[in-house]
Amino acid sequence: MSTSTSTSTSTVRRFIVVVLFDGVDLLDVTGPPEVFALLQREVDEATGYHVVLAAETMDPVTTSAGVRILPDTTFREVSGRSIDTLLVPGAVEVDGQGRVHAVTDPTVVHRVKALAGRARRVASVCVGAHILADAGLLDGKRATTHWSTARQLAAEHPSIEVDADPIFIRDQDVWTGAGISACLDLSLALVADDFGEAVALRVARQLVMYLKRPSGQSQFSVPLEPVSTTRRVEDLRHHITRNIAEQLTVADLAAHAHVSERQLTRIFKTELGMTPAAYIESARVEVARNQLESTDATLERVASACGFNTTDTLIRAFRRKLDTTPTEYRNRFRSSV
């Protein structure tokens, strides 16, 4: 993807620089410019957005998808300009056991740190948060990233308050987004920051996104969790899903797995990074989300079908996990039934 650099400087009020480097995730690069381009259909005046793709050299950059992209400019050429928004995508590598790790290039980190000093706001897309972290731009801030590398980010940068749940977080003039399609949500949030929520919602409709998701919307989804390394935990997860409407106490799960309650808690924390009770609640919220999106069932029926004793328990769980209520969630994400 290449963006023309011929735009008159007199019409450029929002100069946006997207950072390019080999191995970068393709959608992280192409998604945001599409959002900014679609905005022009929704407003009468010129948006002032001018997006350029900047790299170390003008040589083609090969993305993680194998698609090559031509940079518009180099880091050196944009280093003398005032930047409205610096967008930083990321890259990952997968080890022999299928585990995902964010990777950063020291040269790119150095360039981002320098360019950030000339930018009104900085935003990372997906695992691009690791580049911002290495550049010291997230120190003392709350940030998110793709759920698969959130633990890595927290372990490598203890000064950052890592929250793997929201799809994007704004902390002052630094924005961080989850992965990977959440780049669209982050970009829409930037549009809303510039032009208001109503305009951003119209752009969301152009993207055929059902509705623009709020920052507090969770990226967590039980089916998307990393597969555990033991059959015992996989069996427990399936047992929970099959019996989601039942009481499902820690004692019951321990008996099912033929282990002590203490050992069960240790297994869940080691394999899934949470207590059995927290996992059960997350699984119940996920089932409730699906029902709210696809059925007309009352909150009482949804609560009962998902193992919540009362609607109040369901509401409290939604506030903890998704920072919203079941009714608000249904109004925003319900499909036609």
Describe this structure in words.
With 337 residues, the chain is an alpha/beta fold. 44% of the residues lie in helices and 15% in strands. It has 14 helices and 13 strands. A seven-stranded mixed β-sheet has the order 5-2-1-6-9-13-12, with helices on both faces. Strands 3-4 form a two-stranded antiparallel ribbon. α9 (250-257) packs across α10 (261-272) and α11 (276-294) packs across α13 (311-322).
Q: Which terms would index this structure?
A:
single chain; alpha/beta; seven-stranded mixed beta sheet; two-stranded antiparallel ribbon; 14 helices; globular
Q: How are strands sequenced across the largest beta sheet?
A: 5-2-1-6-9-13-12
Please report the distance between the alpha carbons of the first and last residues: 38 Å
**Biggest sheet character:** 7 strands, mixed
| Cα-atom radius of gyration | 22 Å
Specify the number of helices. Answer: 14
Low-confidence stretches: 1-10, 220-229
Residue share in β-strands:
5-15%
Series of H and E elements: EHEEEEHEEEHEHEHEEEHHHHHHHHH
**What percent of the residues sit in helical stretches (DSSP H or I)?**
40-55%
Q: What structural class results from the helix and strand content?
A: alpha/beta
State mean pLDDT (0 to 100 scale). 86
Q: What is the 3D form?
A: globular
By DSSP, the count of extended strands is 13
Topology of this structure?
Layout: E1 14-19, H1 26-42, E2 49-55, E3 61-62, E4 68-69, E5 73-74, H2 75-78, E6 83-88, E7 92-94, E8 100-102, H3 106-116, E9 119-124, H4 129-134, E10 142-143, H5 150-156, E11 161-162, E12 168-171, E13 174-177, H6 182-195, H7 197-206, H8 231-242, H9 250-257, H10 261-272, H11 276-294, H12 299-305, H13 311-322, H14 326-333
Parallel strand pairs: 1-2, 1-6, 2-5, 6-9, 9-13, 10-11
Antiparallel strand pairs: 3-4, 7-8, 12-13
Helix pairs in contact: 1-6, 1-7, 6-7, 9-10, 11-13, 11-14
